[in-house]
Write a structure and sequence with these properties.
Strand content: under 5%
Number of strands: 0
Shape: globular
Oligomer: single chain
Number of helices: 15
Helix content: over 70%
Number of domains: 1
Distance between the termini: 58 Å
């Protein structure tokens, strides 16, 4: 019991202080559990990180679950995962309540308008950073171009991701055996479409469960899937509301998946927030729990590695497209264009996202400060 209490305490603290996205979360966990506490050595830590990358869901949260499992078994898996994500979920839920109650105030609108271009820069920078890592061969570049074309043509994002992974596997198998592997590009089922006047919590749960079950790659792919499902498909959100949700998720500690809590609250209040949160995180808990017995085989599998490489390339394509789409809504004048451009350059230079979002908020509020009272 003492181990569980200590496990919960350390992950609650990390959940409250882990700003900066998945890469920062991983760095904080390495510092905490390898360097300071000695729970793992570097080899074991990298092994667990690789395992988290092989399954759908938020990588840093799944890494927390793996560390919890190493420390205290399956109960530790659940305790570590919940302790890491609950602080973010609670903070985002409070901000969602304020957004719904105070969102019509001019100060709130100006603040969010100022943050919007910075969010576009953050998403674009994420895609650029990932591309530098995963698009390193002519073949990867061809898959990237093909996936961008498929997404622009209207193929569902889920099918684009799976298709990119399966094409990479097919090419890997062909190169290994000389055999022609055909018929591996999935057609995929279209995401649910239509619009609704009142959104029920069960419908929200199902939509976020689908997204959480197939979300490989960067957490920023979540933005692309949310846009496809909730803006273009179901019509539950506007482009502006999606931008606001991503801004809140980015500005708060913990996993970006907490954006789901914000959207669920906007759609259906507290019940909607719970439904969206459980829906998007449940697949990660199940995936980690079910995959542990087979992870050694997966990590040694060249086919699994090829699939993940292909999915990562597809993720870059989706991030690039969603950055353009969000930019169309957020960048409307020279000031917002300059904000996005400067934010991108500063991100490349290593400036933290929290500082940039704060700067964007200040820029958004400046016109109100100049107005006569």
């Amino acid at each position: 019991m003492a181990d569980l209490a200590g496990l919960a305490a350390v992950f609650l603290r990390l959940g409250l202080t882990s700003f900066g996205g998945p890469a920062a979360h991983v760095a904080l966990m390495r510092d905490e559990f390898v360097r300071r506490r000695g729970w793992l050595d570097d080899a074991a830590f990298i092994d667990l990180l690789g395992a988290a990358n092989l399954i759908p869901g938020p990588t840093s949260t799944e890494l927390a679950m793996h560390i919890g499992h190493r420390r205290a078994g399956r109960v530790g898996l659940v305790v570590a995962g919940l302790a890491f994500l609950l602080p973010a979920v609670a903070i985002v839920a409070v901000l969602a309540w304020l957004y719904v109650e105070q969102g019509q105030r001019p100060e709130v609108g100006a603040l969010l308008l100022g943050i919007g271009p910075v969010v576009v820069a953050i998403v674009a920078h994420a895609g650029w950073s990932i591309a530098r890592t995963v698009v390193r061969t002519p073949l990867a570049a061809v898959i990237l171009i093909a996936t961008i074309g498929a997404a622009v043509a209207g193929i569902p994002e889920i099918a684009v991701l799976l298709g990119a992974g399966l094409v990479a596997v097919a090419i890997h198998l062909r190169g290994r055996s000389g055999a022609v592997a055909g018929g591996l590009i999935p057609t995929g089922a279209m995401l649910a479409t239509g619009s609704t006047l009142g959104v029920a919590a069960p419908a929200i749960f199902v939509s976020f469960l689908k997204i959480g079950a197939v979300l490989f790659g960067s957490g920023y792919v979540l933005v692309a899937l949310l846009r496809s499902e909730l803006v273009d498909g179901l019509g539950w959100l506007s482009e502006r509301q999606l931008l606001d949700a991503v801004a809140v998720g980015q500005a708060t500690p913990g996993p970006l998946f907490s954006t789901a809590t914000f959207i669920g609250y906007v759609l259906a209040g507290p019940l909607g927030a719970v439904a969206a949160t459980v829906g998007v995180f449940l697949p990660a808990f199940l995936a980690v729990g079910l995959s542990i017995p087979v992870l050694d085989r997966l990590r040694r599998s060249a086919d699994a590695r090829a699939f993940l490489d292909g999915v990562n390339v597809g993720a870059v394509a989706l991030i690039a497209i969603v950055a353009v789409q969000l930019g169309i809504g957020a960048i409307r004048d020279p000031l917002s264009l300059a904000s996005a451009a400067v934010a991108f350059v500063l991100l490349v230079a290593g400036v933290g996202t929290g500082r940039l979002i704060l700067a964007g908020a200040v820029i958004g509020l400046m016109p109100l400060a100049w107005m006569p009272s």
